Amino acid sequence: MEFFNAVIDTALLPKVEETPLQPVAPAYLQVLRWNWRIAAVISLAAIAAAWYFVPFLHSQQWAMFLGIGWFIITAFRWLWVAQSFKKKAYAMRQHDIIYRSGWIIQETQVCPFNRIQHCSVSSGLFERRYGLASLSLYTAGTNEADFTINGLDEATAVTIRDFILQKIAPANNE
Asked: Which residue, 109, 105, 114, 150, is CA-closest to 132?
């Protein structure tokens, strides 16, 4: 028996970039903004506590420096949240699931169904308030999710989870 390893023309391979992606639920932007608000208040409280309890910070210059620094960082974070939300999208294909995220650094993850060991749907406090959920996919060799799609409608997340479980059920029973 002779070994044969044919060359594959990469121009003929399917392009993930050409796959139409479904954006996450619009309400997820509100969840991100609530998370931003909480982080902004906590960081402001930490800065105020540092200014109050650290004696060498008790000057108008330090107060202005800390205030302007906090404002710039939180404003950039607000912009980051809004811009990165626009890029979050997913797609289901016959053999895999795709998830794109990121604003400045975009990441596209593709997970074949035959590599998925299990998947789960979860929702936090703000996600439940807006009827949203997150879908986490786990492959072999790790205790952490390989990737999580946040901002799905709860019904959509459950439907996708059930679909994936159906796809992987025969593979897990062998």
From this structure: 150
